[in-house]
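Hi everyone,

Forwarding the result from last night's run.
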Amino acid sequence: MSLGQIYARIWDCLAAAVREDSQPFKVMQAATIGLDGSPNVRTVLLRSANEVGNRLTFHTDLRSPKIAELTREPRIALVGCDPVHNLQVRIYGKTRILRDGQARIDAWRTSPDHDLIVYRTRLPPGTRMSHSGDAFDAAHGIPGPDEGLKHFGVVELRPARLDWLDLSENQRALFVRDGDSWTHSWIAP
Protein backbone atom coordinates (compact mmCIF):
# COMPACT_ATOMS: atom_id res chain seq x y z
CA MET A 1 0.00 0.00 0.00
CA SER A 2 1.06 3.57 -0.63
CA LEU A 3 1.21 6.15 2.17
CA GLY A 4 -2.01 7.71 0.82
CA GLN A 5 -3.76 4.35 0.90
CA ILE A 6 -2.57 3.71 4.45
CA TYR A 7 -3.84 7.11 5.59
CA ALA A 8 -7.27 6.35 4.04
CA ARG A 9 -7.26 2.88 5.62
CA ILE A 10 -6.59 4.31 9.08
CA TRP A 11 -9.66 6.54 8.89
CA ASP A 12 -11.73 3.75 7.28
CA CYS A 13 -10.83 1.44 10.17
CA LEU A 14 -11.72 4.11 12.74
CA ALA A 15 -15.05 4.89 11.03
CA ALA A 16 -15.89 1.17 10.86
CA ALA A 17 -15.15 0.86 14.58
CA VAL A 18 -17.71 3.56 15.32
CA ARG A 19 -20.38 1.85 13.20
CA GLU A 20 -19.86 -1.73 14.40
CA ASP A 21 -18.97 -2.93 17.88
CA SER A 22 -17.12 -5.98 16.56
CA GLN A 23 -14.47 -3.95 14.72
CA PRO A 24 -10.93 -4.18 16.15
CA PHE A 25 -10.34 -0.44 16.69
CA LYS A 26 -13.59 0.07 18.67
CA VAL A 27 -11.76 -0.71 21.90
CA MET A 28 -8.64 1.40 22.34
CA GLN A 29 -6.17 2.01 25.11
CA ALA A 30 -5.89 5.65 26.22
CA ALA A 31 -2.72 6.88 27.91
CA THR A 32 -2.57 10.07 29.94
CA ILE A 33 -0.11 11.62 32.36
CA GLY A 34 -1.26 10.85 35.91
CA LEU A 35 -1.52 13.60 38.49
CA ASP A 36 1.56 12.10 40.16
CA GLY A 37 3.50 12.30 36.86
CA SER A 38 3.34 8.60 36.06
CA PRO A 39 1.67 7.14 32.96
CA ASN A 40 -1.93 6.05 33.31
CA VAL A 41 -3.57 3.72 30.75
CA ARG A 42 -7.17 2.58 30.48
CA THR A 43 -9.64 1.26 27.91
CA VAL A 44 -12.02 3.59 26.05
CA LEU A 45 -14.58 2.92 23.33
CA LEU A 46 -14.30 4.97 20.17
CA ARG A 47 -17.62 6.80 19.68
CA SER A 48 -17.01 8.99 16.62
CA ALA A 49 -14.38 9.41 13.91
CA ASN A 50 -14.48 12.41 11.59
CA GLU A 51 -11.56 12.57 9.16
CA VAL A 52 -12.69 15.85 7.54
CA GLY A 53 -13.01 17.53 10.94
CA ASN A 54 -9.92 15.72 12.28
CA ARG A 55 -11.79 14.61 15.39
CA LEU A 56 -12.32 11.45 17.43
CA THR A 57 -14.48 11.12 20.52
CA PHE A 58 -15.03 8.78 23.43
CA HIS A 59 -17.31 9.05 26.47
CA THR A 60 -16.25 9.19 30.09
CA ASP A 61 -17.48 9.81 33.60
CA LEU A 62 -16.69 13.41 34.55
CA ARG A 63 -15.75 12.16 38.03
CA SER A 64 -13.05 9.85 36.65
CA PRO A 65 -9.35 10.50 37.30
CA LYS A 66 -8.72 10.90 33.56
CA ILE A 67 -10.77 14.12 33.58
CA ALA A 68 -8.48 15.67 36.20
CA GLU A 69 -5.46 14.40 34.25
CA LEU A 70 -6.69 15.76 30.91
CA THR A 71 -7.69 19.06 32.50
CA ARG A 72 -4.14 19.50 33.74
CA GLU A 73 -2.45 18.04 30.62
CA PRO A 74 -4.72 17.69 27.57
CA ARG A 75 -2.32 15.52 25.56
CA ILE A 76 -3.35 11.89 25.10
CA ALA A 77 -2.24 8.81 23.19
CA LEU A 78 -4.61 6.12 21.95
CA VAL A 79 -3.55 2.73 20.69
CA GLY A 80 -5.65 0.10 18.99
CA CYS A 81 -4.72 -3.19 17.43
CA ASP A 82 -6.15 -5.67 15.00
CA PRO A 83 -4.61 -9.02 16.00
CA VAL A 84 -6.15 -10.83 13.02
CA HIS A 85 -4.36 -8.59 10.48
CA ASN A 86 -1.34 -7.76 12.71
CA LEU A 87 -2.06 -4.02 12.62
CA GLN A 88 -1.52 -1.33 15.21
CA VAL A 89 -2.63 2.30 15.12
CA ARG A 90 -1.33 4.87 17.58
CA ILE A 91 -2.97 8.28 17.73
CA TYR A 92 -1.52 11.29 19.52
CA GLY A 93 -3.24 14.60 20.05
CA LYS A 94 -4.87 17.11 22.36
CA THR A 95 -8.25 16.74 23.99
CA ARG A 96 -11.15 18.97 24.85
CA ILE A 97 -13.68 17.88 27.46
CA LEU A 98 -17.35 18.52 26.68
CA ARG A 99 -18.96 18.93 30.11
CA ASP A 100 -22.13 20.57 28.79
CA GLY A 101 -23.75 21.68 25.54
CA GLN A 102 -25.88 20.11 22.85
CA ALA A 103 -23.18 17.75 21.50
CA ARG A 104 -22.90 16.15 24.94
CA ILE A 105 -26.68 15.82 25.31
CA ASP A 106 -26.95 14.35 21.80
CA ALA A 107 -24.24 11.81 22.67
CA TRP A 108 -26.14 10.86 25.83
CA ARG A 109 -29.48 10.50 24.06
CA THR A 110 -28.08 8.37 21.22
CA SER A 111 -26.16 5.99 23.49
CA PRO A 112 -27.67 2.60 24.32
CA ASP A 113 -29.05 2.43 27.85
CA HIS A 114 -26.67 -0.42 28.81
CA ASP A 115 -23.73 1.92 28.04
CA LEU A 116 -25.13 4.64 30.33
CA ILE A 117 -25.56 2.56 33.48
CA VAL A 118 -22.02 3.34 34.67
CA TYR A 119 -22.84 7.07 34.81
CA ARG A 120 -25.75 6.34 37.16
CA THR A 121 -23.55 5.12 40.00
CA ARG A 122 -23.45 7.14 43.18
CA LEU A 123 -19.69 6.68 43.54
CA PRO A 124 -16.97 8.04 41.26
CA PRO A 125 -14.97 5.52 39.20
CA GLY A 126 -12.17 3.89 41.19
CA THR A 127 -13.81 4.36 44.61
CA ARG A 128 -13.14 1.44 46.96
CA MET A 129 -16.27 -0.53 47.96
CA SER A 130 -17.07 -3.42 50.28
CA HIS A 131 -19.38 -5.15 47.78
CA SER A 132 -19.61 -5.02 43.99
CA GLY A 133 -23.13 -3.55 44.06
CA ASP A 134 -22.31 -0.69 46.46
CA ALA A 135 -21.94 1.84 43.62
CA PHE A 136 -25.71 1.84 43.07
CA ASP A 137 -28.12 3.37 45.55
CA ALA A 138 -30.51 0.48 46.20
CA ALA A 139 -32.69 2.66 48.45
CA HIS A 140 -33.79 4.80 45.51
CA GLY A 141 -34.63 1.94 43.11
CA ILE A 142 -34.00 1.99 39.37
CA PRO A 143 -32.57 5.31 38.18
CA GLY A 144 -34.56 7.41 35.68
CA PRO A 145 -33.55 7.79 31.99
CA ASP A 146 -31.56 11.00 32.52
CA GLU A 147 -30.16 10.01 35.89
CA GLY A 148 -26.40 10.12 35.46
CA LEU A 149 -26.32 12.78 32.74
CA LYS A 150 -24.58 15.09 35.21
CA HIS A 151 -21.67 12.60 35.30
CA PHE A 152 -21.52 12.02 31.53
CA GLY A 153 -18.86 13.71 29.42
CA VAL A 154 -17.49 13.52 25.91
CA VAL A 155 -13.77 13.71 25.26
CA GLU A 156 -12.90 15.14 21.88
CA LEU A 157 -9.46 14.33 20.48
CA ARG A 158 -7.82 16.28 17.66
CA PRO A 159 -5.16 13.95 16.24
CA ALA A 160 -1.77 15.55 15.63
CA ARG A 161 0.05 12.33 14.78
CA LEU A 162 -0.99 8.93 13.43
CA ASP A 163 1.39 5.96 13.55
CA TRP A 164 0.50 2.85 11.50
CA LEU A 165 2.33 -0.45 12.01
CA ASP A 166 1.65 -3.47 9.80
CA LEU A 167 3.57 -6.43 11.24
CA SER A 168 2.47 -8.70 8.37
CA GLU A 169 4.31 -6.49 5.88
CA ASN A 170 6.92 -5.09 8.29
CA GLN A 171 5.83 -1.57 7.30
CA ARG A 172 5.36 1.46 9.47
CA ALA A 173 4.09 4.88 8.44
CA LEU A 174 3.90 8.19 10.28
CA PHE A 175 1.42 10.99 9.54
CA VAL A 176 1.93 14.36 11.22
CA ARG A 177 -0.65 17.14 11.16
CA ASP A 178 0.71 20.39 9.72
CA GLY A 179 -2.00 23.07 9.82
CA ASP A 180 -4.93 21.69 7.84
CA SER A 181 -3.01 18.93 6.09
CA TRP A 182 -0.88 15.90 6.89
CA THR A 183 2.76 15.20 6.10
CA HIS A 184 3.69 11.54 5.84
CA SER A 185 6.71 9.31 5.74
CA TRP A 186 7.80 5.73 6.11
CA ILE A 187 9.56 4.96 9.38
CA ALA A 188 11.40 1.89 10.57
CA PRO A 189 9.06 -0.76 12.04
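The chain has one domain: 3-187.

Cheers,
N.
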